[in-house]
């Protein structure tokens, strides 16, 4: 390898939003680079112009930044090995494809799409053991090649695969993998439009960018012997290959797909997952620590990560574990940080304005200690604080106000007594409120639950809320009295 420093790359194709499996690949590469004092490179494989989606590229970069996976070289920050868009590197691919032709390791193929379809149809009809190009143009004489080129016939450049023997791939996770060369067809290196295929572009770029390790999805295993043979044809040393374990559906039956739920990082972000939780979850989908530790912040994982702790067995994508991580990290957030992350969901629900005034944001900060133990996803915040952020709430239904085995008249009497007690109360603090209301329950000869529940429902519209006394204090005396009075009057016959 021309560079001793660890250099890894994440090379997404911007044909869709960043897939959760791609995010794990990026995470592992980033962690490996950071653990070894290396470089993490972002390279955009945008040579498939028919499937290129500009907004997908923006999503990929935004999602990586949201996860905290910063890159040392890339399309937006440059580097010594650019450009980092493959569409801007076409001269490199054309140069190296032509080099292989001159050296007799590749050849021009003039077969039309129609002929290729006929070859495929015949192979299917014959139930051939392998499918692929029949090497019709492999041994064209130079004169014929020049004549066809002079006529303007479209052509591709194909790699001359060895017809016999085996190709051995060394995989850092899976050991030695052997492939029968007779099962590998002469794949296309350069298409007729001058754009490379993935096989050529990634080999050339990984070499020129001095990539030392290639960590990628296991679906690329069948392509790896092609890449190894290309390295040999160029006389280049290949990088270390490590093919990551496949992600399975939550029940472990079949590969993870859209029918199992969200598959893009964007979707998980919109659902209210924290990047800390998603990183921790993805880390353990294939990698395991030396002990039973489960919770890893990304900075800690970057110190411990190594290839020898990556499993090769398929792993189930169990979202209940992700939800557990999310709740854990939410509970650890400082109030101000949690409020900042919840703010967009509250603004979307029109519970807070955008921009949010400082005094309203300060009030939201005060609410966070009451609710952070109760939410697992950020959007759930609206169900726990809406009654705090509204000046008025709808009067709760009568049936919600009535504890079991009580009548409207009994509850009206309780609410009226609570109103009278709280009206005279000062200061309006948790300690004073609790002492007053417990004393009131004793005075009225009722259990505290019989008194507290109607008060809770009257002032929040909910039967489940944060602690009653904290809630009353944060609502404030005026709103509490107003809501108690409205609920009391709704029970008047």
Written description of the protein model:
The protein has 493 residues and is mainly α. It folds into four domains: 166 residues, HUPs (Rossmann fold), CATH 3.40.50.620; 155 residues, Rossmann fold; 57 residues, Helicase, Ruva Protein, domain 3, CATH 1.10.8; 93 residues, Arc Repressor Mutant, subunit A (Orthogonal Bundle), CATH 1.10.10.350. It is built from 20 helices and eleven strands. Strands 3-4-7 form a three-stranded antiparallel β-sheet. α16 packs across α18 and α17 packs across α18. The chain is elongated. It starts with 6 loop residues before the first strand and ends with a helix. The mean pLDDT is 95.
Give me some keywords for this one.
Rossmann fold; mainly alpha; Helicase, Ruva Protein, domain 3; two-stranded parallel sheet; 3-stranded antiparallel sheet; 493 residues
CATH fold category name of the largest domain? Rossmann fold
The CATH class name of the largest domain reads Alpha Beta
CATH architecture annotation of the largest domain: 3-Layer(aba) Sandwich
Proportion of residues in helical segments:
40-55%
Class by alpha and beta content: mainly alpha
User: Considering the protein shown, what is the CATH homologous superfamily of the largest domain?
Assistant: HUPs
Count up the helices: 20
Query: What count of domains describes the coordinates?
Result: 4
Q: Largest sheet, order of strands side by side?
A: 3-4-7
**What is the radius of gyration?**
32 Å
N-end to C-end Cα span: 88 Å
- Give the overall pLDDT as a whole number: 95
């Amino acid at each position: 390898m021309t560079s001793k420093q660890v250099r890894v790359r994440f090379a997404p194709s911007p044909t869709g939003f960043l897939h959760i499996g791609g995010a794990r690949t990026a995470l592992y590469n980033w962690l490996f680079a950071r653990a070894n004092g290396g470089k993490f490179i972002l390279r955009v494989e945008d040579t498939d112009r028919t499937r290129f989606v500009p907004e997908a590229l923006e999503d990929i970069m935004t999602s990586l930044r949201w996860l905290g996976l910063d890159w040392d070289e890339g399309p937006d920050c440059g580097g010594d090995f650019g450009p980092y868009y493959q569409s801007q590197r076409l001269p490199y691919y054309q140069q190296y494809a032509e080099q292989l032709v001159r050296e007799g390791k590749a050849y021009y193929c003039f077969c039309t799409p129609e002929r290729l379809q006929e070859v495929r149809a015949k192979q299917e009809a014959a139930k051939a053991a392998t499918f692929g190009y029949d090497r019709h143009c492999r041994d064209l004489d130079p004169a014929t090649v020049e004549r066809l080129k002079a006529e303007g016939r479209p052509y591709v450049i194909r790699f001359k695969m060895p017809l016999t023997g085996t190709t051995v791939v060394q995989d850092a996770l899976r050991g030695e993998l052997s492939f029968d060369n007779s099962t590998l067809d002469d794949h296309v290196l350069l298409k007729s439009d001058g754009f490379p295929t993935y096989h050529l572009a990634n080999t050339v770029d990984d070499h020129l960018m001095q990539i030392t390790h290639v960590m990628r999805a296991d679906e690329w295993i069948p392509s790896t012997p092609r890449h190894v043979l290309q390295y040999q044809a160029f006389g280049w040393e290949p990088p270390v290959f490590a093919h990551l374990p496949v992600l399975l559906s939550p029940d472990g039956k079949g590969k993870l797909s859209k029918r199992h739920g969200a598959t893009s990082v964007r979707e998980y972000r919109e659902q209210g997952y924290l990047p800390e939780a998603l990183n921790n979850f993805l880390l353990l989908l294939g990698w395991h620590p030396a002990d039973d530790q489960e919770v890893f912040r990304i900075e800690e994982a970057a110190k411990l990560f190594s290839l020898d702790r990556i499993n090769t067995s398929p792993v189930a994508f169990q979202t209940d574990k992700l939800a557990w991580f999310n709740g854990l990290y939410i509970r650890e957030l400082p109030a101000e940080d949690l409020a900042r992350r919840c703010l967009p969901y509250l603004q979307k629900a029109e519970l807070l304005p955008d921009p949010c005034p400082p005094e309203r944001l300060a009030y939201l900060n005060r609410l966070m200690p009451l609710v952070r133990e109760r939410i697992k996803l950020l959007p759930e915040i609206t169900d726990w604080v809406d009654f705090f952020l509204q000046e008025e709430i709808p009067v709760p239904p009568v049936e919600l106000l009535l504890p079991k085995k009580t009548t409207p008249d009994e509850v009206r009497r309780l609410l009226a007594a609570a109103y009278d007690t709280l009206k005279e109360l000062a200061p309006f603090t948790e300690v004073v409120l609790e002492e007053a209301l417990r004393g009131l329950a004793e005075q009225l000869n009722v259990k505290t639950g019989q008194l507290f529940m109607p008060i809770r429902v009257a002032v929040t519209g909910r039967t489940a809320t944060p602690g009653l006394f904290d809630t009353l204090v944060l609502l404030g005396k005026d709103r509490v009295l107003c809501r108690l009075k409205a609920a009391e009057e709704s029970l008047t016959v």
